[in-house]
Design a protein that fits this description.
Layout: E1 3-6, E2 10-15, H1 21-32, E3 35-41, H2 47-58, E4 62-67, E5 70-76, E6 88-89, H3 94-105, E7 111-114, H4 125-133, E8 137-139, E9 148-151, E10 156-157, E11 160-162, H5 168-178, E12 181-182, E13 184-188, H6 196-203, E14 208-211, E15 214-218, E16 227-229, H7 234-246, E17 249-258, H8 265-272, E18 276-285, E19 288-296, H9 317-325, E20 330-333, H10 346-356, E21 360-364, E22 367-371, E23 378-381, H11 386-394, E24 403-406, H12 411-414, H13 418-425, E25 428-431
Parallel strand pairs: 2-17, 3-16, 6-7, 10-12, 11-13, 23-24
Antiparallel strand pairs: 1-24, 1-25, 3-5, 4-5, 7-9, 8-9, 13-15, 14-15, 17-19, 18-19, 20-22, 21-22
Helix pairs in contact: 1-2, 1-6, 3-5, 4-5, 7-9, 9-10, 9-11
This protein binds shikimate-3-phosphate.
Length: 432
């Protein structure tokens, strides 16, 4: 699937974007192993979260779809999952595979996790190594990639583990396994990563203690069903925030956006770039803060992205690169080598893509330097990466001719309805 995107100058509207991907995954996972029925609203009906849902259905969990975005999960309890008759195919979703590896490591069932071409190349030792220290029987292929095979064990042992990479997926996998361990598991993180697992465990009445980067969980307790309202995904909102900032005539308001402080790096970075962004209607749903965000045409300026903001904006670098291409001066991103092991090598894909639309860019092992300039048209290889595809579609708001983007089908993993929504605010994306 290709996008042919015509240049446009206006991005205008009041919109909502789909539910948060990270929170939707966790809602299915924790609800499935809770005691009782959990109602989830605002669930992201994207392929990644549907892959998580189907994995639990294959393990015997009944999940009723009430209306769009509304589900009832009939929890089977912490030890109630049934052995699936087939491998669990998690598609493009790294979050599904890494968190499930942790959740399944302490079960008395055997499972094998596989995925699509991109997921089958992603590093899994980062979760399997700490789980092995807990006594789990988890294996990867010889180069540390999927399939991940998990064999039953009687019980896991608690560990104290210092995260070698800033990764919420690794942290979450260990915490989920920690529920099945004897004793208290402690994960130490030196850079804060998204804390949706910790917040949601507390919502399911499973105590987690967080103190100065030490996250502790006691094994052997149970989860109580609850209701989960999923906020809109700030990672999806980011495309429209940047759209409004770079469009010559831009003004977009997005409602009910998740504003968890471990996710708002994109706002802080854009504000430092002189973006015209206002946060209003602040509220809390469940354990997560939300707000409305209004962004308007801005005279962006290049910056050195502060290192401490990298983990909290990790998924937003593709669209931040587009903002940088439209800014006056240079933007430097460093200490972001994790971008090389996402759904694609995002440093290399963004560098190639920006060069194809006439932007000066230099690639570093851990980031890039982008010099703001004039965007021409051009051909972009999205490498089947949803965020690369959406980012270059937004760049059309400053392009002088058509941008053609290949392999866009994976936009459906995180943002169903992206094309329709983008066209409704003024873009012109033609799907071919
Ligand atoms: C996620 C954590 C991040 C992020 C991913 C979702 C999560 O990955 O990039 O899209 O839901 O925990 P890492 O843990 O690899 O940083």
């Amino acid at each position: 699937m290709k996008y042919l995107v015509q240049p446009k100058k206006t991005a205008h509207g009041e919109i909502t974007v789909p539910g948060d991907k990270s929170i939707s995954h966790r809602a299915i996972m924790l609800a499935s192993i809770a005691d009782g029925e959990t109602r989830v609203t605002g669930f992201l009906d994207g392929e990644d979260c549907l892959a998580t849902m189907s994995a639990f259905q294959q393990m015997g969990v009944k999940i009723e779809r009430i209306t769009e975005g509304e589900l009832v999960v009939h929890g089977v309890g912490k030890h109630g999952l049934r052995e699936p008759t087939d491998t669990l195919d998690l598609g493009n979703s790294g979050t599904s595979m890494r968190l499930l590896t942790g959740l399944l490591a302490g079960q008395s069932i055997a499972t094998t996790l596989v995925g699509d071409g991109s997921l089958m190349k992603r590093p899994m030792r980062r979760v399997c190594d700490p789980l092995a220290l807990m006594g789990a029987q988890v294996a990867t292929s010889s180069d540390g990639t999927p399939p991940v095979t998990i064999k039953p064990v009687d019980q896991l042992n608690a560990i104290i583990y210092e995260l070698p990479v800033a990764s919420a997926q690794v942290k979450s996998a260990i915490l989920l396994a920690g529920m099945y361990a004897q004793g208290k598991t402690v994960v130490k993180e030196s850079k804060a990563t998204r804390d949706h697992t910790e917040r949601m465990l507390s919502a399911f009445a499973y105590p987690v203690s967080v103190q100065e980067g030490n996250i502790s969980i006691q094994g052997g307790l149970s989860l109580q069903a609850t209701n989960i309202q999923v906020p809109a995904d700030i990672s999806s909102a980011a495309f429209f925030i940047v759209a409004a900032c770079i469009a010559p005539q831009g003004q977009i308001t997005i409602h009910n956006v998740g504003m968890n402080p471990t996710r708002t790096g994109v706002i802080d970075i854009l504000l430092a770039m002189n973006a015209n962004i206002v946060i209003h209607n602040q509220a809390t749903v469940g354990r997560e803060p939300i707000a409305s965000i209004t962004a308007k045409s801005s005279q962006l300026k290049g910056i050195q992205v502060p290192t401490h903001l990298v983990p909290s904006a990790i998924d937003e670098f593709p669209i931040l690169c587009i903002a940088a291409a439209c800014a006056k001066g240079e933007t430097r991103v460093t200490n972001a080598e994790e971008l090389r092991v996402k759904e694609s090598d995002r440093i290399s894909q963004m560098a190639q893509g920006l060069a194809s639309i006439g932007i000066q860019v230099e690639e570093f092992p851990d980031g890039l330097r982008i010099t703001g300039g004039s965007i021409s048209g051009g051909e972009i290889n999205s490498a089947h990466d949803h965020r690369i595809a959406m980012s270059f579609a937004i760049a059309s708001l400053r392009a002088s001719s058509v941008i053609e983007i290949s392999d866009c089908e994976n936009v459906a993993t995180s943002f169903p309805g992206f094309v329709e929504l983008a066209n409704s605010v003024g873009l012109s994306i033609n799907v071919q």
